[in-house]
Amino acid sequence: MSPVSSYPKHSLPVILSAFALVFGVLVMAPLAVSADTLPNNARGPQDKFRQLDEALPTPNRYRSASGAPGPDYWQQKVDYRIAVRLDEQAKRIRGDETVTYHNNSPDTLTYLWVQLDQNRFAHDSKAVLSRTTEAKNGRMGYGTLRGILATDRGDFGNRILQVTDAEGHALSYRIEDSYLRIDLPTPLAPRQHFVFRISWEYHIPQGKVVGARGGYEEFDDGNAIFFLAQWYPRLAAYTDYGGWRVMPFLGAGEFTVEFGDFDVSITVPADHLVAATGSLANPREVLSAVQRKRLEKAKTAREPVFIVTPDEAKRNEKGRAKGTRTWHFRAEKVRDFAFASSRKFIWDAKGFRYPDGHYVRAES
């Protein structure tokens, strides 16, 4: 296109008038569209009688028209073997995990996406940069200000130490906000699996201050309760209806994650009690003979049985044992793993009997 200065002077008003007319039409056009003229799929939830044909995916071998699994339905499986250590004084955890990713999809994958939920609290995360604050009567509360200052000044978010394959060879990866993408050395074909390792660490946020799903709560006696959710790098879901699910974690809502088996070793101060997903695999190493006896009794008890009584918990919280102890848990076919650790816990349990005769132990 020629510059305006190359046109004859008498044609400039015509050109500029035409430009103004087109620009005005483009700007004003959206304002002239009535909601009644919008298609059903643009009206949103106010269209209460909208048909679902256009909203639901086309039925196929994987999903029926109702959305229920079809004859060829598939779901990925991810198994974790994790060793994690809690530093009570520094309020920090460090973990090493071995992940086995089973590709049950009909697709060949060239990369994997891993969720780094703790990156939500990093000062440059999308969650922090996009947050809004509602002031009441033009004033901001101390609690709100404290949370803002904590994420602005704190050293939060996952620090990835290394990502390797099963043999220890470094894998190519990059971090995008709350996700880590691993480029596979060779494509992962259907019905194959891939094993890799991640080492990481992060500072644990104070849950009440920043509104964390997992963090710690501190008490006047110098003790703390650590409640750890969204604490380990975990695979994002890969689904038949949407492929990789990699929306940034902004703090609200939950994410679909894959089912799998967990083998988790948790090293904590020696006088801490640990509650976790799954079943305790090493009671002889972490519980006294009396506690083991109580735990066994609770399995079939009709009323809750104390494993650690209130009086015992009061004595525990006053002590500071030296050294550490490692609790070992296993869980099969679950979608996630959480744990809590403290020397302040009271612990009771009760068995629940299924119709087929086997027991599961409910604990608090």
What is the compact description of this entry?
This protein has 364 residues and is of the alpha+beta class. The chain is 17% helix and 34% strand.
Describe the protein in words.
There is one protein chain. The chain is α+β, with helices and mostly antiparallel strands. The chain is 17% helix and 34% strand. It has helices at 12-28, 40-43, 126-129, 142-153, 207-210, 283-286, 289-298, 310-316; strands at residues 77-87, 92-102, 109-115, 159-165, 172-176, 179-188, 193-203, 215-218, 224-228, 234-235, 238-239, 243-244, 260-269, 273-276, 279-280, 305-308, 324-334, 339-342, 347-353, 359-363. The strands form five sheets. Strands 4-7-2-1-13-17-15 form a seven-stranded mixed sheet. The protein has a four-stranded antiparallel sheet with strand order 5-6-3-10, with no helix packed on it. Strand 5 (172-176) and strand 6 form a beta hairpin. The relative contact order is 0.13. Residues 1-38 have low confidence and may be disordered.
Distance between the termini: 75 Å
Low-confidence stretches: 1-38
Mean pLDDT: 82
| Morphology | globular
The helix/strand order is HHEEEHHEEEEHEEEEEEEEHHEHEEEE
Backbone structural class:
alpha+beta
Number of helices: 8
Tell me about the largest β-sheet: 7 strands, mixed
The order of strands across the largest sheet is 4-7-2-1-13-17-15
Helix content: 10-25%
Total strand segments: 20
Beta-strand content estimate: 25-35%
Radius of gyration: 28 Å
